[in-house]
Amino acid sequence: MFFGTAILFAGCGKKNPLPDLRETYAATDTKPFGGKIAFSILQNSFPDNYVQSTKLAFEQGVLSYSDTAAVYFCLARNFYTKPAEADAILDYVYHGNSFFLSAANIDTILLHRIFCKVEAGQPVNQQGSYYENTGVKLIDDLDSSAHGYFYKPFTSYFSELNKNYYRTIGYNGNMQPNCTVFFWGKGKLFLHTDPRAFSNYFLLKNDNYLYMQRLLQLMPPEPEHVYWNDYYYRKNRRATESSFSTMDEILKYPSFSGAFWLALFLLIMYVLFGMKRRQRMIRQLQPNDNSSVIFAETIARLYLQKKDNKNIAEKMITYFSEYIRTNYFLYANAGSDDFIQALSRKSGVSLEKTISLYRAIDHANQAGKLDDYQLLSLNEQIQQFYKKRK
């Protein structure tokens, strides 16, 4: 049982994955819909010329082109251009060069300038099959044989062509024109509506490589240069008359581009340094309150609310007596004539005021109850003693 289960899982693990069917048409791509074989056929068709592969848009590379009899080859799933780029292509052809373009989606910006229109078309097979045996064919003057394979049908075609400028040189599976040459100035613009006819998968099927070789016979036999474009297969965004990209405009000019990247770098540095832990704000500490004074004020306020004047007077007398003992070292016979005279001499307070103060103290000690006036009088005399002392 265990051995059978192990064999089952081993068999599942060896299942072959499906091939990568992405349509890149890149010169070095060996996948089914890469352009490795087409690039080799192009090189072998012009053995005296080195095929120069470029990864720039035509508008960017045309500034370095001064050709008058060159071959420019471009395969792409989507060929989207800007108005200036479409004009550059036509100018390049006008000066005597041959431009070969095969794309499933050709931008209407270019098509409107050369008076033609492309339609997707419908498969001949109406049974709903996604794949079928399909093929393409050139005119009999080039190749009398049809070339086909099993995959999605070739159905796109040119629905509108100006016969004064065009000549049809190829047809799709429905015998509709899918390959044509546009005569402009001294040069030729070759247009093909399905780049799958130049994929590795198609060209390696039987003798389908002859399809491309026959087409290349229409090119100049000894071109000045041969170019292969590897830029447009990565470009998927449509460019329209009103399209505008702020980033494209900024990066177009070296000064703006340098300023943009510098500003971006400074912003990143500011964010990184700002992420560092900052020192917390130091809270200002309030000075400690003198709780003893607050406590005394609270107790005094409590005594005043109770109207206990006798108790308040006793506290005042006790505090005053402690003050006398501490500052003047007079202890015994408080209130006697000798004590009063000694206190008057040491404190500098007149003898009359000292005698009056101690009379008020004796009265407060002997009285059973004090009214507010008597309490205030005693407090006033004690405070005057503090002020008059030396």
Count of domain modules: 2
- The total count of strands amounts to 11
**Overall geometry:** rod-shaped
- Bin the strand percentage: 15-25%
Give the second-level CATH assignment, the architecture of the largest domain: 3-Layer(aba) Sandwich
CATH topology of the largest domain: Rossmann fold
| SSE string | HHEHEHEHEEEEEEEHHEHHHHHHH
Strand order of the largest sheet: 1-11-2-3-10-9-8-5-6
The CATH first-level class of the largest domain comes to: Alpha Beta
**Strand pairing plus helix content: what structural class?**
alpha/beta
Taking the alpha carbons of the first and last residues, their distance comes to: 117 Å
**Unreliable runs, pLDDT <50, ≥5 residues?**
1-14, 239-243
Radius of gyration equals: 54 Å
The mean pLDDT is 83
Q: What is the count of helical runs? A: 14
For the report, how would you describe the main beta sheet?
9 strands, mixed
Please give the share of residues in helix.
40-55%
Mind sketching the topology for me?
Layout: H1 2-13, H2 36-45, E1 51-54, H3 58-61, E2 71-79, H4 83-94, E3 98-106, H5 108-113, E4 117-119, E5 132-138, E6 146-151, E7 157-160, E8 166-171, E9 177-184, E10 187-192, H6 200-203, H7 209-216, E11 226-229, H8 246-252, H9 254-274, H10 291-306, H11 309-328, H12 337-347, H13 351-366, H14 372-388
Helix pairs in contact: 2-7, 11-14, 12-13, 13-14
Write a brief caption for the model.
42% of the residues lie in helices and 17% in strands. With 390 residues, the protein is of the alpha/beta class. The protein folds into two domains: 18-241, Rossmann fold; 291-388, no CATH class.
